[in-house]
Design a protein that fits this description.
With 460 residues, the chain is mostly helical. Strand 3, helix 8 and strand 4 form a beta-alpha-beta unit. Helix 3 packs across helix 8 and helix 6 packs parallel to helix 12. The longest helix has 37 residues. It binds arginine. Arginine binds next to helix 6.
Amino acid sequence: MEKLWKGRTDGKVDKTAEDLNASITFDKRLYKEDITGSIAHAKMLSRQGIITAAEETEITRGLISILNDINSGRLVIDDSAEDIHTFIEGELTSRIGVSGKKLHTARSRNDQVALDMRMYLKAKCDETEEKLVALIEVLCDKAEKYSDAVMPGYTHMQPAQPITYGHYLMAYTAMFLRDADRIKDCKKRIDVSPIGSLALAGTTYNSDRFYEASLLGFKEVGINSIDGVSDRDFCVEILSALAIIQTHLSRFAEETVLWSTQEFGYITLSDEYTTGSSIMPQKKNPDMAELVRGKTGRVYGDLMAMLTVLKGLPLAYNKDMQEDKECVFDGVDTVLKCLEVFTKMIKSAEPNLKKMRAAANVGFLNATDLADYLVKKGEAFRTAYKICGEIVAECIAKGKTLESFTLEEYKNHSELFSEDLYDAIDLDACVKRRTSYGGTSPSGVKKQIEIVRESLKKLK
Ligand code: ARG
């Protein structure tokens, strides 16, 4: 394909240089945004008297036919074109002749590509938010079902205090809710139209940036044309928001791997989200959770690549910026895929409540409640803490639990102990009593579900 910019040079570029320079193999996915942007551009040009209404009609018809042909597969995007903008303009001109050559009046590929990326990412923000909402809904439904299911809560991966499975699941909804909010916030800054910035300095034509932006549904118009073409903060922002989502998914994935082991056995993954081994017939591996965890590294890499591309770039457009695409596309594709699979995997996983409770029965998770019992009987907390620590040590030495430790044995440690201590350390009672705001009690979990569902309504 002939170079758009042939003139100053003969346009003959070394084959390997041409290969390095081209972005068509990855920016062709922007064809819809590019065509939609061009249709709006033609409309603005005609309204402002820069091209005629007849030319606008021809251009629009030509662009729509290209769009339809690409969609139907009749037109295959030619990988020998430099980029998607060049390909579409070239195809338009070959279809409609001289009017096609007028489309690029009062426009540069610099503002055009920034526009395409922003349009693409606005839609992807919505998609990401929808997927987060779907995941949060699944978690709320599960949390509701298991709001009183006792499981061990951990700190340092050591048994800490009893919690409910519902409470555990709701912790993730808090994280994903922040993610959805972050994406929404990112979108505000993506929703600023760069078109009309041209190469960097604006234009001498009587163009109307506000009209063109409104045709494309942008909320704002960028206030500085140099920034309009050199800003890629929005790529960094979306990638960082995606990286945080992936961090959350990865922590959840790690626990999914752990909880589905023989040793923990808290959940059973549905066969659909596991794989087997080519040699060991008994295996059922949590590959999806592992891949979600693994792909997190790749999304962090995308963010790092984007930040590094921008570091030290002089204003305004530099070809380095073409490197925004592959990392943004990869980050978006990866996170969307992970969110979708993860949601289905969690939805179909079955908790094993008996195993959770059995694990909570060992490990002295109710030791804090034993200390609190003494405090309520008048002991100072630090003293109560020490007494209970000694009781735990004695239990370990004798191979007992706090439940099987006799009242007589307890009384050796403090006269304040009486028969009602056993009710105080009952696991169900322990979780039920934690009614502080945000706490693990079944009533607290139900409240959290209510709050999160309310927040989801506001998001929609
Ligand atoms: N393919 C280019 C990119 O993605 C489009 C902008 C080209 N601009 C230029 N001055 N060569 O950044």
